[in-house]
C-alpha cells in the first residue's frame, strides 16, 4: 500500500483540475459573461459571444468546468493533507503550508494587479481599489474574515484551504492516530452553518458571512479525508462509502441552509468531481504518472493563481486589437502555461524548500535543547 502524499492518481487529478478551471475561465466565462469579466479587470464590457466551436464544451447546463475543477482540488487536499500531519506536528504543518501557499500567491496576485493596471491605463479608467483592500488581499484567509473586496476572483478557494489547514492542525493528534474523531469536525461545521443561516443578525457580521461561505466546502473536503482513511486501511470500503455519502449529503444540507444557497446548483459539478475521484481511486492504473500529467500537476497551483485576471486582461486587449478569438485563446493559453511553469521553478519550489528548511532548523534546535532540559539529575 502506498503511504505517500504524492499518490499517483491524486497527482494526476491535480493537473486535470487546473485545466478544468482554465477551460471555465478562458473558454466559457470570458465569452459568456463579458460584464463580469469587465468588472473584474476594470474594462468596458466586451461585445463578444461564445464562438461556435466552444459551444460543445457547455452542452450540459448542470455541469460547470470551474466548479468541477475546484471540487477536485478540495478532494485532493482532503486526501493528501493527512499524510503531512502523520509526519509532523501541528506547528510545523502550518508553517509548511504557509510557505507552500502564501509566497506564490503574493507573486501571482501582484501579476493580477499589474494586469488590471494595464487595462485601466488602456481604457483610461480610474484605479478601482483602495490601498487597504489591496493590502488585505495579499494574505489568503484574511480578506473574507474582514469581508473585503474579492479582487482576483479566485482567492475565496484558497481562503477555504487555509481554514481547512487550521482545522486539521486542531485535530492533528487524532489525524496522526487516524482516529474517526476527526469526522466530528464536519458535523460541527454543519451545525454552525444551520445556526448562522437561521440567525438573520449574524448575516451582518463579516466573520459569520465567511463561516457560512466556507463551511459547506470545508465539509466537502472531509470527503477526501474519508478516501485517505480507506487508502491507509483505517476503514473498509463499506465504511468509506457510508462516510462519503453522509459527508456529501451534509455538504448539500449545509450549503442549502446558508444565505449562499444560490451556489447550490454547483452541487451537480461537485458530485461529478466526487465520481471522478472515486473512479481514479478504484482504478489508479488509469491515472498513473506520465510526463505530461506531471507537468500539469506541477504547475497546477501557479496556473490556478495566475491565469484568471491576467488571462482575462490579455484576451480583452487582444480582442480589442482585432485578434480572432481562436488566435487570442491559443496565445493566452500558451502564455499562461509558460508563466505558470516559470513561477513553479522560480517561486513555488524555492518557497516550499525554504519552509522545509525552516522546519528542519526548528526541529534540530528542539532536539538539541531537549536532552539538556530533561536530563536526569546525577
SSE topology:
Blueprint: H1 8-32, H2 34-41, H3 65-87, H4 90-122, H5 131-137, H6 143-146, H7 155-170, H8 172-176, H9 184-197, H10 206-231, H11 237-256, H12 267-282, H13 291-298, H14 300-320, H15 325-374
Provide the structure class: mainly alpha
Helix and strand succession? HHHHHHHHHHHHHHH
The number of distinct helices, counting runs of at least 4 residues, comes to 15
Largest beta-sheet details: none
What count of domains describes the coordinates?
A: 1
Calculate the terminal CA-CA distance, rounded to whole Å.
Answer: 47 Å
Q: Over the alpha carbons, how many angstroms does the gyration radius reach?
A: 22 Å
What form results from the Cα inertia axes? Answer: globular
Name the average pLDDT.
Answer: 92
- Content of β-strand: under 5%
Q: Percent helix among the residues? A: over 70%
Low-confidence stretches: 1-5, 372-378
- Write down how many β-strands occur, each being a DSSP E stretch of 2 or more residues: 0
Quaternary: single chain
Amino acid at each position: 500500500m502506498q503511504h505517500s502524499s504524492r499518490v499517483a492518481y491524486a497527482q494526476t487529478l491535480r493537473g486535470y483540475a487546473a485545466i478544468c478551471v482554465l477551460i471555465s475561465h478562458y473558454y466559457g466565462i470570458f465569452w459568456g459573461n463579458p460584464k463580469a469579466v469587465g468588472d473584474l479587470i476594470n474594462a468596458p464590457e466586451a461585445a463578444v459571444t461564445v464562438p461556435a466551436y466552444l459551444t460543445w464544451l457547455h452542452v450540459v447546463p448542470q455541469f460547470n468546468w470551474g466548479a468541477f475543477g475546484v471540487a477536485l482540488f478540495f478532494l485532493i487536499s482532503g486526501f493528501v493533507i493527512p499524510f503531512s500531519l502523520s509526519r509532523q506536528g501541528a506547528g510545523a504543518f502550518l508553517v509548511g503550508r504557509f510557505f507552500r501557499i502564501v509566497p506564490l500567491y503574493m507573486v501571482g496576485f501582484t501579476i493580477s494587479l499589474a494586469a488590471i493596471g494595464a487595462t485601466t491605463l488602456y481604457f483610461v479608467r480610474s484605479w478601482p481599489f483602495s490601498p487597504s483592500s489591496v493590502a488585505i488581499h495579499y494574505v489568503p484567509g484574511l480578506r473574507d474574515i474582514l469581508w473585503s473586496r474579492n479582487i482576483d476572483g479566485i482567492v475565496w478557494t484558497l481562503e477555504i484551504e487555509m481554514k481547512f489547514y487550521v482545522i486539521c492542525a486542531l485535530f492533528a493528534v487524532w489525524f496522526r492516530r487516524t482516529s474517526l474523531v476527526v469526522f466530528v469536525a464536519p458535523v460541527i461545521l454543519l451545525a454552525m452553518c444551520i445556526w448562522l443561516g437561521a440567525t438573520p443578525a449574524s448575516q451582518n457580521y463579516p466573520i459569520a458571512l465567511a463561516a457560512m461561505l466556507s463551511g459547506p466546502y470545508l465539509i466537502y473536503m472531509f470527503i477526501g479525508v474519508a478516501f485517505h482513511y480507506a487508502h491507509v486501511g483505517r476503514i473498509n470500503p463499506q465504511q468509506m462509502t457510508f462516510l462519503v455519502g453522509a459527508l456529501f449529503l451534509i455538504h448539500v444540507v449545509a450549503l442549502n441552509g446558508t444565505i449562499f444557497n444560490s451556489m447550490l446548483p454547483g452541487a451537480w459539478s461537485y458530485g461529478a468531481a466526487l465520481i471522478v475521484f472515486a473512479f481514479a481511486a478504484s482504478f489508479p492504473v488509469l491515472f498513473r504518472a506520465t510526463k505530461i500529467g506531471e507537468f500539469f500537476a506541477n504547475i497546477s497551483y501557479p496556473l490556478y493563481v495566475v491565469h484568471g485576471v491576467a488571462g482575462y486582461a490579455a484576451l480583452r486587449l487582444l480582442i480589442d486589437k482585432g485578434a480572432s478569438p481562436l488566435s487570442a485563446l491559443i496565445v493566452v493559453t500558451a502564455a499562461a502555461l509558460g508563466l505558470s511553469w516559470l513561477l513553479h521553478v522560480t517561486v513555488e519550489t524555492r518557497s516550499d524548500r525554504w519552509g522545509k528548511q525552516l522546519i528542519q532548523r526548528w526541529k534540530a534546535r528542539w532536539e538539541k535543547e531537549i536532552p539538556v532540559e530533561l536530563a536526569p539529575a546525577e
